[in-house]
Amino acid sequence: MQPAFFLRHPSLMKKSKILLTTFLAAYMSALFWISGCSHKNPHYDPAKPHHTPAGFQNNYPHSHPSRLDFWRWAVQRRLAGLPKPPTQDLSPAAPDLDFLFADSEETAVTWIGHATVLLRMGGLNILTDPHFSERASPLSWAGPRRWQPPGVALADLPRIDLVLISHNHYDHLDLASVRALAEQHGGPPLFLVPLGIKQWVHRNVPKARGHVLDFDWWDRREIPGATVHFVPAQHWSQRALGDRNRTLWGGWVVQQPDFVFYFAGDMGYSRDALDIGERFGGFDLAAIPVGAYEPRWFMRNQHVNPEEAVQVHKDVRARQSLGIHWGTFQGMTDEPLDQPIADLESALKKHNLSEQDFFLLRHGETRRLKNSRLGQ
Asked: What is the number of structural domains in the chain?
């Protein structure tokens, strides 16, 4: 049909648009959800319960949404016109670049957006799940798109010493961002990745070769300026058709003598958080996801909601927590981008906690942090 036909019949144009967007959403999510052919796990250790001959699995069993569940969600959200746009102003704060570039030992955290956090601790500049591209997608023309630009532009970053990658989903592992960081002035940062992702970095980012370390759950390594641990999370991995759970996923702990940081990555609620709290005895700062949680029947085993995030904060014994994984990419979930603000406030009141205990930042905003006795 010619475009003029749709102009004369707007109702058909609207229906066609809904069908097209539903198909595109289904196609994009299929890249994450469809399981593939057999694969041999080169890291397989039968003594480790989270290892499988073909890949990896969570510590605590739970149900997975089926392909039918996915189609049900994709169709229902499109017909309902979800997600609704935010009603609150989520525009970025002007980044304090003078402070970010200052030669200082002062500990501070800056939220760049989604799961990308810039943490300065003990003289190290640490970047988590760097994502600076327009879309969280393998395609430049489809997939979740930014509602707000990064709070600090990639070109405005100070030199990054350490990059922590939690898993290989497109909203957490962005090829263009990793390539740009590998080209930074003075040489690449040190990239810390879960098992299986080191090969991906070597294949796609040749300049990072020799600057990548891979970790299994509970692995510990001494690096210049800190001790780093990789810890479990209830989640999954997939980057293309047929590679579901072939690479590992998880969170990171960075220890210095007077500051301990926990980056949760992406997670559904499980006993893993209690295990982490018991092992480390607490954290000065935790970065915990608070967004992408609706509908619960579909999201609950892979993404915590704000109330569960507050429980994670308590389970890991964090002195302070920063809410991440919200307010950035439209279309990843059913709740409006600003819904985590109200839901986190309600959860904090329910648990008798305050904004000082668990806080949110605007994109680009920096908060200075006090060190404590938690360092080990």
From this structure: 1
Give the SS3 label for residue 287: strand
**So what's the pLDDT on residue 140?**
87
* C-alpha atoms less than 13 angstroms from C-alpha of 192 in its C-beta half-sphere: 31
Is the pLDDT at 33 greater than 50? The verdict is no
Return the bridge partners of 210, or none: none
Q: How far apart are alpha carbons 308 and 288 in whole angstroms?
A: 10
Give 52's strand partners.
55
Residues with Cβ within 8 Å of 348's Cβ and at least 6 positions away in sequence, in order, are: 310, 354, 355, 357, 358
Name the residue among 307, 264, 308 with its Cα closest to residue 285. 264
Collapsed DSSP state (helix, strand, coil) of residue 125: strand
Q: Which domain holds residue 256?
A: 97-368
> Is 3 a domain residue?
no
For residue 41, being part of any structural domain is answered with no
User: What is the 3-class SS of 289-312, one letter each residue?
Assistant: ECCCCCCHHHHCCCCCCHHHHHHH
Is residue 201 one of the residues assigned to a domain?
yes
Cβ neighbours around 166 below 10 Å, total: 29
Question: Which stretch of 8-12, 54-58, 222-226, 311-315 has the lowest confidence by average pLDDT?
Answer: 8-12
Mean of pLDDT values over 209-225: 98
Residue 86 belongs to a domain: no
CA distance 282 to 124: 21
What are phi and psi for residue 116, nearest 5 degrees?
A: -90, 115
For 318, residues 6+ apart whose C-beta sits below 8 A from its C-beta are 262, 282, 283, 284, 285, 286, 288
CA distance 109 to 323: 12
Q: CATH number, domain at 106?
A: 3.60.15.10
Instruction: Say what the pTM is.
Output: 0.90
Q: What are 16's two structure tokens?
A: 């066609």
Angle, vertex CA 309, rays to CA 280 and CA 373, nearest 5: 30
What pLDDT does residue 31 have? 46
| Helix, coil or strand: residue 291 | coil
